[in-house]
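WARN retry 2 of 3 for item q-0093 after timeout on previous attempt; input resubmitted unchanged.
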Amino acid sequence: MSAVSAQAPHGTAGERAHARRPVRDVVVLANPASGRGRGEAVGESVAAAIAADGHAVRSVTVRHWDALVEACEDADALVICGGDGTVHHALELLIHERDEEAAERAERGARFAYRANGRAKRHPDRRSLEDLDLERPRPTPGPAVYHVPLGTENLFAREFGMTGAPSAVAAALRAWRVRDIDLGRCRGWPFAIMVGVGPDAEVIHRMDEARTGAISHISYVGPVLGVAMRPRVPRLRVRVDGRVVVNVRRGSVIVANSRQYALRVDPCPRAVVDDGMLDIAFLPARTTLEAAGLTLLSRLRLHESVPGVVIERGTKVLIETIDAPAPVQIDGETGGDLPPGAPMEISIDPKAARVLTPG
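OK item q-0093 returned
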């Protein structure tokens, strides 16, 4: 971890301007693999722009996750230079207040993600939150997050209109407009965007298995073709706030905290990140062709009128696969398989984190 500082000469206009503005404690997290290998360089540029504005800056990469945990203990803001996956893995650091029960859930979620997702090759320092000493109480609220988009889709940055220019990050810190947002919770792990069960998650699983470095939209062609040739369309039962809304039907389900989705398909276009609710879309499909057709209709915002499509809202969702394991994705990251007869609970934590919106 490194510290960056920049000061104007004594008595200059720049120094006087700095004195009038609050000094923020800012952590800049960079994923070196993001942005086709430019992540660390982008992080350095962002850190320099922030320091030039008079803020205290600490820089860290995803290779040193334990240093990130320590840096975020008393940070005002966390600037993440990477893709949606980097944002997802840092979410636990943003939560307003961590009690003992939340720490235990987070620890279980971290251990599950590490075991099921094979993160050793991509996140060598990714361990359980207990190992990272994350159970220690931290002052509330947590750091406000800003996403410098360097990934394939950058759904988090898109949701809030964030851009990657260092000057834009500095402007956001100067304006300091902070928005409280909800976070979903699935298998003990927080999510900002969505959870998916079905063919879309199968694509994510195949992509994760094949991935060796930075990816682009073209990288998904192979996994998509693999799913098309050997689809796993599960039979699902879905409950929303205790009501059965899908009862043993083949298809995929998306549980969304945000309206954003890959390729702007957006199956839950009315989802709002701070309304205390989850939006649910069940897209019925027995074949890959049917799933592809519904994907296209979702892109055109016509899917809700298709017979069999279920659109719901609620605060607690239970998803159960009936006769075969079903793949799960969380914020575009693999979430393991859902075994038959073991319902997966998804809930919402209202106003759990803060976002630094563009200035």
